[in-house]
Amino acid sequence: MHAEHAHTYPVPLKKGFDYISDFHTWPFWYVGVIELVDPELCGWIDSGDQVHYRYKILGRQIDASSVLDERIDLERTSFRTVSPGFPEVHWEYRYAAAGQEAFILRVVMETEEPTSFFGRTVDRMLLPRIVERDLTRSLENLHDIFVADLAG
Fold first, then answer.
1. At residue 124, does pLDDT exceed 80?
2. Is 52 helix (H, G, I), strand (E, B) or coil?
């Protein structure tokens, strides 16, 4: 499965990158992230750093981790999400300035094919819609947060 979304935000690139890259903000904007787990043990700077959190999907809470593969400040962050019972999801957040006071975030998401019959059925029918919905709503949440910050 492959999904790609782009959104332009009305804040400078550095401000947007810093906010999105601060994993402490994730529960405020990423749909489904309920809480961070042991945030004092988490990091999001160097390759191999991990963030552990609880995520709500299909009406239940699961423990998940995002593992940082690469971070190039103000340009790109790539990572993978790992959670028991679900296929690994690979993410890339690409950043670009859109003038002095705005930036574009392009999110690319890919997941591997599951191996079990039940997994293939569920993943092909439900997971793409859920991930797509959560990603779209999360990008909209970011927009609302950045606009509210500008207003006051």
1. no
2. strand
Residue 132 confidence (pLDDT): 80
The residue ranges of every structural domain in the chain are 2-33+72-151
Cα separation, 1 vs 7, in Å, equals: 20
Alpha carbons 31 and 130: distance in angstroms, whole number: 10
Name the region of 95 (left: φ>0; alpha: ψ -120 to 50; beta: rest).
beta
The pTM of this model reads 0.89
| Dihedral sign, Cα of residue 38, residue 54, residue 84, residue 76 | negative
Report helix, strand or coil for 40: helix
Give start and end residues of each alpha helix (H) in the chain: 13-21, 26-29, 117-125, 127-151
Residue 78 is which amino acid? Answer: S
CATH of 2-33+72-151, one of 3.30.70.360, 3.90.1170.40, 3.30.530.20, 2.60.120.260: 3.30.530.20
The span from the CA of 152 to the CA of 147, in Å, is 9
* Cα torsion through 34, 51, 133, 98, rounded to 10: 120
